[in-house]
């Protein structure tokens, strides 16, 4: 019963205070503006950028060794790029769009995916097998997980197409395969 009386006094006191606050001068000030007025803000300053190509640009890839050398990508290669940046970039690149990769923390150090000197010696089936079964499935480092259950066959094929187009030196099988050839955009 005492709790109900205390609760009732607090409730009545709150109502009295709210009523008294409406009578004060401060409650008469309007903190709103009409619809025809806009907010006042400082102008946005756009700084000149030295980027030539933004990450995620569809259909092109800057050469990892020379950003002014642009590699045009066909649809399959562009899909492979998407998969590479989702699954592989953290261990198979020196840097990523999100910052440094984890490559130097992995033992043995994984191959760079643009290392044509190493990857050009391997046929497509060997690379597909490494991707699908992981490093342990082909007698290499078990640190590379198998992607055969994660990626579809088309995804793996697209990833291989992307790996081939970014290879330096250029993969010899690219010229006659109908794939996009590198374009040098230096002026």
TrEMBL record:
Keywords: Heme, Iron, Metal-binding. SUPFAM superfamilies: Cytochrome c. GO terms for molecular function: electron transfer activity; heme binding; metal ion binding. InterPro entries: Cyt_c-like_dom, Cyt_c-like_dom_sf. Residues 75-167 form the Cytochrome c domain. This is Cytochrome c domain-containing protein. It comes from mine drainage metagenome.
């Amino acid at each position: 019963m005492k709790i109900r009386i205390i609760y009732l006094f607090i409730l009545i006191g709150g109502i009295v205070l709210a009523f008294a606050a409406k009578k004060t001068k401060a409650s008469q000030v309007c903190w709103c503006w009409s619809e025809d007025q806009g907010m006042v803000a400082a102008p946005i300053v756009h700084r000149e950028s030295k980027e030539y190509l933004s990450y995620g640009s569809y259909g092109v890839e800057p050469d990892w060794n020379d950003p002014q050398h642009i590699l045009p990508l066909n649809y399959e290669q562009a899909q492979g790029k998407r998969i590479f940046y989702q699954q592989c970039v953290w261990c198979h690149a020196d840097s990523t769009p999100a910052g440094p990769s984890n490559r130097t923390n992995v033992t043995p150090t994984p191959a760079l995916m643009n290392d044509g000197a190493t990857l050009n010696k391997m046929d497509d089936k060997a690379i597909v097998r490494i991707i699908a079964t992981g490093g342990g499935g082909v007698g290499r480092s078990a640190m590379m997980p198998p992607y055969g259950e994660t990626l579809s066959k088309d995804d793996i094929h697209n990833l291989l197409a992307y790996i081939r187009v970014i290879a330096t030196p250029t993969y010899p099988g690219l010229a006659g395969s109908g794939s996009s050839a590198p374009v040098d955009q230096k002026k």
